[in-house]
Task: inverse folding
């Protein structure tokens, strides 16, 4: 049994009905992961992720949606988004709590409770400012 499976079991998640999905009380361990239906790469990644967590007893339901639909659902649903350059400014923009809910940045409203001096600082080259 993997460490993750032990942690789920210790937390009260067990497959009581034999369908391969763990439950806690009447709540099944399953959720929807939305990806842009026009993007085959993200579709493949979503399917692969669902296949990887299935053995843990977690059911990830993969659903393709239009960007319009994703824009309406992304603050309350798991969405497989993708960015490209991974430069420090892009990473800051994506995850900064200052951008929570702004367009497609930080759609999960992540917020670090640490004061700013303890958070990593994004360094920009002179040409980037």
Result:
């Amino acid at each position: 049994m993997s460490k993750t499976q032990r942690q789920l079991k210790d937390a009260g998640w067990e497959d009581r009905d034999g369908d391969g999905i763990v439950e806690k009380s009447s709540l099944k361990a399953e959720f929807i992961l939305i990806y842009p239906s026009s993007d085959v790469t993200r579709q493949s990644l979503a399917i692969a992720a669902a296949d990887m967590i299935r053995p843990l007893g977690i059911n990830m339901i993969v659903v393709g949606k239009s960007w319009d639909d994703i824009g309406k659902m992304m603050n309350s649903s798991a969405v497989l988004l993708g960015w490209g350059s991974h430069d420090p400014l892009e990473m800051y923009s994506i995850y900064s709590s200052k951008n929570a809910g702004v367009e497609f940045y930080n759609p999960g409203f992540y917020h670090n409770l640490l004061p700013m001096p303890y958070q990593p600082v994004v360094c920009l080259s002179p040409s980037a400012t």
Summary: The domain at 1-82 is CATH 3.10.105.10 (Dipeptide-binding Protein; domain 3).
